[in-house]
Amino acid sequence: MMFSAASPGDVPSGKGASGHSYVSCDHDQSPSACAVHAPSLQSSRSELSPCYLSSDQKRILIVDDDDWIRDIMERILRRYHYQVFTAPSAEVAWEMLRFASFDLIISDMMMSGMNGLELTAHVSQAYPHIPIVLLTALRDRELLRTAIRCGASDFLAKPFSIEDVPLIVERNLERHALLRFDRVRRDYTLKFNTVKVLTAAVEAKEPYTAEHSRRVTHLAVNLGQAMGLPEEELRHLEIAAQVHDVGKIGIPDFILHKPGPLTEEEWAEIRKHPEKGAEIVGHVEELAYVAEVVRHHHERVDGSGYPSGLQGDNIPLLSRVIAVADAFEVMTSDRVYRRRFSREEACCRLQSGAGTQFDRAIVDTFLARHLDTLLT
Ligand SMILES: [Fe+2]
């Protein structure tokens, strides 16, 4: 098989018996067993430089101590519009992983220094989301089993067909995308079910609080959308609003249901609910990130709130959003000790609390632009 000097981006072609093009040079074999010899490389090419970048291209890292294999793989994959990086050793690849992200790694199995198996084991531990395809000429089943146990996603057997390279890359990218999607869905379902359990517990103890939390969630999420919060933040906001008063589970019934005004001691008990709530939510690993939002939903921007007396931007943004939605919902609902305020009255009270109790910009968004939408 003869390769002519290739221009950048060309894939050298040579046909095997099947009509496919083959590459068969490997350190697993003795040098004399190499079917072809490497053409000279462009000396200006940096091992660490990406080729022809664009942000939506998948990033592939090729790890091989054979210059020619790296070069040919790079040319093949570049032709299929992948963003290609190369490393001449597993040690260099490991270092690159500290500073850059990759969508897939293709690594030679046998390399001096850290070998492909060791690299696979390290990567699957530290970066389990990156699939690793191992290049090997070995057919040792036990070794392949060991590679799978180490975390290898797939194998590319040498000699390999040039046409096989993009296929195996695509197959592994696709498979990992599906696995990732499945993980996200499972994660969301788990969070959702956990929130359902918590709200059911609140409902059993304090039906009013459960109903209040549903209305606050509706207002808070609509307010967050009006503020232009990103999708991820909106999901956190939704969960935090649903569980923001879960700490009331820990408040004695006679205080929660007292028809008359509360004593100072009873108020002190009520004021513990954000911290009790953060503690409950914080125990659920998947919800730990909303614990701080729950803890601070009764802070005031002037620093006179509880439990920590945080001021202004030191209060988590989602806590400030919930504070506005919470106050509006409370003011516009009947209580055993008072009738509800009209929406207009509640809006006036939000306005007068802007800059002291509430974040002014959030109140402005609530009042000025989206009130009708927020309430629908
Ligand atoms: Fe509360």
Give the helix/strand layout.
Layout: E1 22-23, E2 59-63, H1 67-79, E3 83-87, H2 90-99, E4 104-108, H3 116-126, E5 132-136, H4 141-150, E6 154-157, E7 160-161, H5 164-205, H6 207-226, H7 231-243, H8 253-256, H9 264-270, H10 273-282, H11 288-295, H12 317-331, H13 343-353, H14 360-369, H15 371-375
Parallel strand pairs: 2-3, 2-4, 4-5, 5-6
Antiparallel strand pairs: 1-7
Helix pairs in contact: 2-3, 3-4, 5-6, 6-7, 6-12, 7-11, 7-12, 10-11, 12-13, 13-14
The structure holds fe (ii) ion.
Q: In brief, what are we looking at here?
A:
This protein is an alpha/beta fold and 376 residues long. It has helices at 67-79, 90-99, 116-126, 141-150, 164-205, 207-226, 231-243, 253-256, 264-270, 273-282, 288-295, 317-331, 343-353, 360-369, 371-375; strands at residues 22-23, 59-63, 83-87, 104-108, 132-136, 154-157, 160-161.
> What is the mean predicted local confidence, pLDDT?
80
Structural class: alpha/beta
Distance between the termini: 72 Å
Per CATH, which architecture of the largest domain? Orthogonal Bundle
Give the biggest sheet: 5 strands, parallel
How much of the sequence is in beta strands? Answer: 5-15%
Number of structural domains: 2
Q: Report the uncertain regions.
A: 1-55
What is the helical fraction, as a range of percent? 40-55%
Q: What would CATH call the homologous superfamily of the largest domain?
A: Hypothetical protein af1432
Number of distinct beta strands: 7
Give the C-alpha Rg.
30 Å
**Attached small molecules:** fe (ii) ion
The CATH class name of the largest domain reads Mainly Alpha
List the helices and strands in order. EEHEHEHEHEEHHHHHHHHHHH
